[in-house]
Design brief:
Blueprint (H helix, E strand, L loop, with lengths): L5 E2 L2 E2 L5 H14 L26 E6 L5 E5 L12 H9 L7 E3 L19 E3 H10 L3 H12 L2 H14 L22 H12 L2 H7 L3 E2 L4 E2 L4 H4 L3 E9 L3 E10 L2 E8 L4 H15 L1 E6 L5 E3 L2 E4 L4 E5 L7 E7 L11 E9 L2 E10 L1
Antiparallel strand pairs: 1-2, 3-4, 3-11, 5-6, 7-8, 9-10, 10-11, 12-15, 13-14, 14-18, 16-17, 17-18
Helix pairs in contact: 2-3, 2-4, 2-5, 3-4, 4-5
């Protein structure tokens, strides 16, 4: 691991926030758009030797809150090669049973690029081919699964775009399940990170991408991050001449899971390691409200019953604000257990809104 350049003990990409936060707070009070300053838009700093190793687009996000911790060119549309398969896998999981078995269609046998060498008529389960898709990056697995789920590549792509929209990825368009070059098939670093955060909330998806060796078929995971980075938990590599080297990585440390995306990045492993190290070094997972904390709403006392966590820079804690309000009842709506709601703000941005339940 490369030695990080630091000032006052803080990682390079994040260090200037310390002196910047007070000014940013004033800006944010004046304009909601000002909060973007604290969500990674400008943290890369001035041009440096490290920037030369950067990808064409990058994003680091905390998986639970979806907070952007670092971003560079995050909204630029780019091809993404086999990292497409992250969306393919979660779309299959939401539309098929793992134990379903089917014969490989002729169209899926012999698909160009990376492959597990499926043969026409061979019988596989959905589960087997999902492992072939995510561990071995099988383009033939992607096509076979798409045809099984939807009957055609076009119909499956429609489902993929619906899934992407559910994940909050609104600036992407998917035309195939494998990521082979196709005009009009693109994503952004931010969107792909959102899709991955969404997918990582699926237990089966997490299990698949976190598997290093799938013994039923003798398939080893190609993702080198498992060997290179402490705490790595997935997700997917990708390469085509058009897209360059692409990598999406999830990693967990101290109870906090981060997702890092780099697109068209020649040194994708080294760059990802650097970005994750800096983010883990700068942020910590903070409990902003314990689920058993008692809060007053008028003459009543309630609690959320759910502990709320958020990734925070140390200097941000003093800018948390918690407000409670009585529940507004409309028409016939009634729930005697709910006495009000609590809203939690960081600066002037709402980060949580939850019901308060009577004791």
């Amino acid at each position: 691991m490369k030695e990080h350049h630091k000032t006052s003990g803080k990682p390079f990409h994040f260090r200037f926030l310390t002196g910047f936060l007070t000014a940013a707070y004033c800006v944010c009070l004046a304009s909601p758009a000002g909060y973007a300053l604290l969500d990674g838009k400008f943290r890369a700093g001035a041009e440096t030797p490290e920037r030369a190793a950067a990808g064409a687009a990058e994003c680091v996000m905390e998986a639970e809150s979806r907070r952007i911790l670092y971003e560079r060119q995050g909204d630029v549309p780019l091809p993404m090669a086999s990292t497409t398969k992250i969306l393919t896998a979660v779309t299959v999981l939401e539309n098929a049973s793992l134990e379903e078995e089917f014969s490989v269609p002729e169209q899926a046998a012999g698909v160009e690029g990376s492959s597990v060498y499926l043969e026409k008529g061979a019988v596989y389960s959905v589960k087997d081919l999902l492992y072939g898709l995510m561990l071995r990056s099988g383009n033939d697995c992607a096509e076979a699964l798409a045809l099984h789920v939807s009957g055609s590549i076009g119909e499956f792509a429609r489902k993929m775009n619906e899934t992407a929209e559910k994940a909050g990825a609104l600036h992407s368009f998917f035309k195939n399940p494998h990521g082979l070059p196709c005009e009009g098939h693109y994503t952004t670093a931010r969107d792909l990170t959102l899709i991955t955060c969404y997918a990582m909330h699926n237990i089966v998806f997490r299990e698949i991408v976190g598997t290093r060796y799938y013994s039923p078929r003798g398939w080893e995971n190609k993702n080198k991050m498992f060997r290179r980075y402490e705490g790595a938990t997935g997700v997917k590599t990708g390469y085509t001449k058009e897209a360059g080297r692409c990598l999406v990585t999830s990693a967990e440390r101290g109870g906090m899971t981060l997702v890092c995306t780099v697109l068209n990045c020649p040194a994708m492993y080294e760059r990802t390691e650097r970005l994750l190290d800096d983010a883990f070094g700068a942020y910590e997972r903070v409990c902003v409200l314990d689920g058993e904390t008692l809060l007053a709403v008028g003459n009543e006392i309630g609690r959320t019953g759910e502990s709320l966590f958020y990734p925070m820079y140390p200097e941000e804690r003093e800018h948390l604000r918690i407000e409670t309000a009585p529940r507004q009842v409309f028409g016939r709506e009634k729930n005697d257990e709910i006495i009000g709601e609590v809203k939690i703000y960081l600066l002037n941005r709402l980060i949580f809104s939850r019901n308060l339940y009577k004791l």
